[in-house]
Every structure is written in structure tokens, then in C-alpha cells.
Specification:
The structure is a single chain. With about 220 residues, the chain is an alpha+beta fold. The chain has a single domain, classed as NADH Oxidase. The chain is about 40% helix and about 15% strand. The protein has eight helices and six strands. It is globular and about 55 Å long. Bound molecules: flavin mononucleotide. Flavin mononucleotide binds next to loops.
Length: about 220
């Protein structure tokens, strides 16, 4: 069939499937958002490999509507921190509802964002609503869904590579496009500091929902 290639499928025995599924679950279950980083540098090759992994995500009509900007330059990180803190201060003091602040309380977060300076690398993810092909504008589809899935792949790849990260969404995020000089079709989606945890770092003691709460087998009607 023209335009098609054989799919490289590797059939696993059921025991092997269970083993691998369990191992991957156990790996993912150890992932936590970390908000305090050491200054240990992340090898460039690791950053490139985790971003290649993010780029393997499925996307609406295979548009791959994402752009990842890696920032390691201290001056640029600091500019981002100041702009993020300005928005976050406004959010924490005026924009967030009491319910939202109550929900954030167990996480111990506030408008201070030291981690933006401290992390050796920031990955800023941009979502592309459309792209230009010469004079023509080509629309992308299911952009948020696609970029969200790519960020999921990215988070798993970061954790798998022995690194930690935070999914940070300072709101509104327009300042990221401005500081990083991105074109107007790119909208900042998430800011992810990536690196190694500070020695002895603590994380909030929060619980994940049990399987019974997040899934059910649909009963067959007889
Ligand atoms: C879309 C999204 C936005 C988030 N935004 C922030 C944020 O701006 N600041 C922050 O400290 N954590 C943020 N988080 C991290 C969550 O607080 C964290 O994932 C949640 O508390 C669960 O903790 P865990 O990641 O350690 O499992 C965000 C997470 C997601 C998925």
C-alpha cells in the first residue's frame, strides 16, 4: 500500500506484559512534583532525548503542534522568575478564589518561585494553534489535547531519566512568549523547571485516588 509501512510490533507473553505494566506503574508512582532544585547541571544529551520522547506523542492529524524552548541562561531564567512572580503575586492576592486557595493549602505553594532561578534548565512548552507555510496559514487540530499528551510523555521521560520537574502554570503566561521572542502563533502552555532535587527535599504528603475511584468495568447488561 503506497504511503504505508509495516508496523514494528513486538508481541509479549502475558506474564511479561504484567511484569512490564507493573514496573512502569511502579516507576510512575514514584514521580512527584519537586519545587526545590539543586544547581547540578543536566547533560544536554539527556534534555534532547527527553524532548525527542515528548515528540513521539500522538497529535491531532499528526500536526505535532508543539515547540519546546530550553532555557539554561541565568539571566533569562531570572527574567522569567520576576515576570512569573508578578503574575503569581496578583493571582494569590486577588485572582484566586477562596476555594482555590484552600485546595492549594496542602501543597504549601505561594507566589515565590525560587525554583525558576534554581533549576538548571527550564523547558517552556508552547502550543501552536496554526503554522505558516509560505503565504498560507495551516490550522492545527486538538491542540490542547495533543500538547497535553506530549507533556505527559515528557514528564514520564524526565522521571525515567532520573530527573525531577514541576508542572508550573503561572497565569496568565503571555510573558513567556515575549521574553523568549516566540512568534504569535505559539502560546505558552506550561513552564517546567527540570533538574535534580535539593538535598533532603520534602514533598507534600498527598494521596492518589485508588483504582476503584478512577475506573470501573462497565457491566454487560443481560
Ligand atoms: C496542569 C497542571 C498545572 C500545575 N500548576 C502548578 C503550578 O503552577 N504550581 C505548582 O507548584 N504546581 C503546579 N502543578 C503541580 C500539581 O500541584 C501536582 O501535580 C499535584 O499536586 C500532584 O502532585 P504530584 O505531581 O507530586 O503527584 C500543576 C500540575 C498540573 C498537571
Amino acid at each position: 500500500m503506497q504511503g504505508f509501512i509495516p508496523y514494528d510490533f513486538n508481541l509479549l507473553l502475558p506474564d511479561e506484559q504484567v511484569r512490564r505494566a507493573r514496573e512502569f506503574y511502579e516507576l510512575c508512582n514514584r514521580r512527584r512534583s519537586v519545587r526545590e532544585f539543586s544547581d547540578k547541571v543536566v547533560p544536554k544529551e539527556v534534555i534532547e532525548l527527553i524532548l525527542k520522547t515528548a515528540g513521539t506523542a500522538p497529535s491531532g492529524a499528526n500536526k505535532q503542534p508543539w515547540q519546546f524552548v530550553v532555557v539554561t541562561e541565568p539571566n533569562v531564567k531570572h527574567q522569567i522568575r520576576l515576570a512569573a512572580e508578578k503574575e503569581e503575586k496578583e493571582s494569590y492576592e486577588h485572582r484566586m478564589s477562596d476555594e482555590w486557595l484552600e485546595d492549594l493549602e496542602p501543597l504549601g505553594t505561594d507566589w515565590h518561585k525560587e525554583f525558576i532561578d534554581a533549576a538548571p534548565a527550564l523547558i517552556v512548552v508552547f502550543a501552536l494553534s496554526y503554522e505558516r507555510e509560505g503565504e498560507k496559514v495551516r490550522k492545527n487540530y486538538y491542540v490542547k489535547e495533543s500538547v497535553g499528551i506530549a507533556v505527559g510523555f515528557l514528564l514520564a521521560a524526565i522521571h525515567n531519566a532520573g530527573l525531577v520537574s514541576l508542572t508550573h502554570t503561572p497565569s496568565p503566561m503571555e510573558f513567556l512568549g515575549k521574553i523568549l521572542g516566540r512568534p504569535e502563533n505559539e502560546k505558552a502552555f506550561v513552564l517546567m523547571p527540570v533538574g535534580y532535587p535539593k538535598d533532603g527535599v520534602m514533598v507534600p504528603d498527598i494521596k492518589r485516588k485508588e483504582l476503584g475511584e478512577i475506573m470501573r468495568w462497565k457491566k454487560v447488561e443481560s
